[in-house]
């Protein structure tokens, strides 16, 4: 796995500054960190998880670092799978969410 220092060295070489005469190693590393944060916003890590549920429970703890749910398979195990997809209703053309529901989509 590439370390931050190695990534910064490669960036400095691409900038024809392998000796760090123009930009310091710390500056190149900060740029790499900023680029990784930006990249992660556009291409987030996706994981698949299973949540055990029970009747009448509607709230569940989510894993640490959870940011967004893309799809929900319900019920699980169907072939082809059924997915619940988030449908947002916006009032007055604004951007604030006022009401949301889940709709079933056949995969």
Can you describe this structure in just a few lines?
By secondary structure, the chain is an alpha+beta fold.
Describe what this molecule looks like in 3D.
The protein is of the alpha+beta class and 107 residues long. The chain is built from two helices and three strands, in the order ααβββ. Strands 1-2-3 form a three-stranded antiparallel beta sheet, with no helix packed on it. It is elongated, with a radius of gyration of 22 Å. Mean pLDDT is 78; it is low at 91-107.
Share of helical residues: 25-40%
Query: Into how many domains do the coordinates divide?
Result: 2
The biggest sheet, with number of strands, parallel, antiparallel or mixed sense and barrel status, is:
3 strands, antiparallel
String of helices and strands: HHEEE
What proportion of the residues form beta strands (DSSP E)? 15-25%
Structural class: alpha+beta
Count of discrete alpha- or pi-helical segments spanning 4 or more residues: 2
Q: Which spans have pLDDT < 50 for at least 5 consecutive residues? A: 91-107
Shape: elongated
Q: Give the rounded overall mean pLDDT.
A: 78
Q: Give the distance, in angstroms, between the N- and C-terminal Cα atoms.
A: 36 Å
Task: Specify Rg, calculated over alpha carbons.
Answer: 22 Å
Widest β-sheet, arrangement of strands? 1-2-3
The strand count comes to 3
